[in-house]
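Risk mitigation, structural track. In case the binding assays with adenosine-5'-diphosphate fail to produce interpretable data, a predicted complex structure has been prepared as a fallback.
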Amino acid sequence: MLHSPVLRSVKLGVKSLLLHKLRSLLTTLGVLFGVSSVVAMLAIGEGASEEAQEQIKQLGSQNVILRSVKPPEDTVSNQSTRVSNYGLTHLDFERISETLPWVKRAVPVRELQQEVRVEQRKLNPRVMATTPDYIEVTGRMMGEGRFISERDEELVSNVCVLDHEVARFLFPFETPLGKRVKIDADYFTVVGTLLPRTRTSDDPAAAGTSVTGEVLIPRLTGQRWFGDLQVKVRSGSREMEEVQLHEIIAEIDAPENVAHAAAAAREMLKRNHKQQDYEVVVPLELLARAEETKRIFNIVLGSIAGISLLVGGIGIMNVMLATVTERTREIGIRRALGAKRRHIIMQFLVEAVVLSVGGGLLGILLGLAIPWFVTWYADLRTIVTPEAPALAFGVSVGIGLVFGLYPAWRAATMDPVEALRHE
Amino acid sequence: MPAVAILKDVSRVYTMGNTVVRALNGFSFEFGQGEYWAIMGSSGSGKSTLLNILGCIDRPTSGSYQVRGQEMATLDDDELSELRGLHIGFVFQSFNLIPQLNVLENILVPLFYQEDPPADGEERAAMLADRVGLGDRLDHRPLELSGGQQQRVAIARSLINDPALILADEPTGNLDTQTTSEILDLLDELHDEGKTILLVTHEADVGARAQSILHLKDGHIDDVAHNRPRP
Ligand SMILES: Nc1ncnc2c1ncn2[C@@H]1O[C@H](COP(=O)(O)OP(=O)(O)O)[C@@H](O)[C@H]1O
Ligand SMILES: [Mg+2]
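Fallback model:
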């Protein structure tokens, strides 16, 4: 019992706090909420950041992606023929890849709604006609075989590359390499398969795209067999769409030029399109947007944390001042029996720290529950790093020390005779 | 007998507004080792003030106080605290036990603050509790004890550091006649063992139990008397 003064102080602190359970609990609420906000803030921020990083990796951090977007119905649809004609053109592609500065290379993507089948198995994946550079520009990884080659383009060969999902579905028991699949009315030889993306994600930029699977064919082959006109059957009515390119992915020579290139591309498209039938997606801007979201989150939760911790600290100070007054006589007794000022300081400081660390530990528990709830409820990714609870713990120790110091000092500088005469 | 406490021309002056109270006024005296003094006098005559200075929880306004050969004026707050913890035993009128601590822990408090506490502190505390008749109440809280029992715990606490001076300010003031004589019997025993005891009281029959009586009046010595030795 005599051995560790700190341990004895902690024991004594806990004991005297338990004498006023409700008061102690209420006092710790401020620290509790403050600390839980800190933990939650870090977890949500970390999750958002990682989400953005991943998304950018998937889209290519040095890429600018142009997409065709169907403009509002009445402005395009020619009522008599019911052909809607919109989106990016082959000409756009040429301008982007030839005349836009900073563009290292660009790949066109044309999407075809076609049925793909092998014997009885059939599927409606995204059939994408593109050029050999696609694989490198998007950073996707080959599984087996090879990607579409220059030679495939020259020969306009009927070859195709299947993504992981399609390959698994059409050829569950064998390698698809060298096998033939039927796309619409024509047969294509499978020359390669793609590995799955790192995450078939909730990435808004690629929403609903990867779930149905992808089949890639050479650009010119696509043009030869399927033309530019597509027939869509939507809610019973036939509808025709003429879209030359669905996507142009431009790879920029250096990260610092991405913003310039994106601006130039926007400018160029604006000049050449009568309507807003395209969008420009810049992964780096997504990162900036994610950072911005994270920043706003940090400001909001940081303010909550700061205010709660301040209020919590003041609450602790208040309760400790009350405790010191209530225990004035005890302080006098201890001083008469040999306690130095620092012993008294330590006793009350430890008590304040026990109080705020108690709140801090409960706060950490709540702070771990909030990200879990956010993930479950809002489907936001959250990551609790080990540093977060450690930081929160440190913060609560600090709050106890800072706000406990004045009451402890008051206790220690009391005159022993006065203190003994108290009450 | 060598002197434990030597006071020379000690004054303690309280100034409140423009009234000046001389609680001690040019007080000089020597308390010898092993002596048992009753300090008597009417209310406000300066008894508690004297005892507080003797116990080093208060400082004289002027004059010199030497305790165990050390001049108090040369010691700072920490050194005085240490001196109290090592050499002074306090017994108060209102017992002044710490309510959160049990009997054993209360007896041990002075050792908590010693730089180098004895290794056998707990055994000694238990022995002292036994000695004052509370060996079977070690884990009781003060509020679970009667006044007489609490005062006996306080006496055990004042003995844990084997003090040079035991200072008791009206220790029987809150007790009935029966427990008063029990406590006084205990002080007699301590005196017989050679302890130096200074006991403040305003009751003549309590004062009569001491070896000698120091009468105070208006902060200085009014009379010194010696009781007939006990049979
Ligand atoms: N803190 C104080 N402030 C002002 N006056 C005091 C203080 N303490 C004691 N006194 C005065 O000093 C005188 C002696 O007090 P005290 O030593 O307590 O007397 P006793 O114990 O003999 O009754 C009294 O007149 C008292 O009012
Ligand atoms: Mg008095």
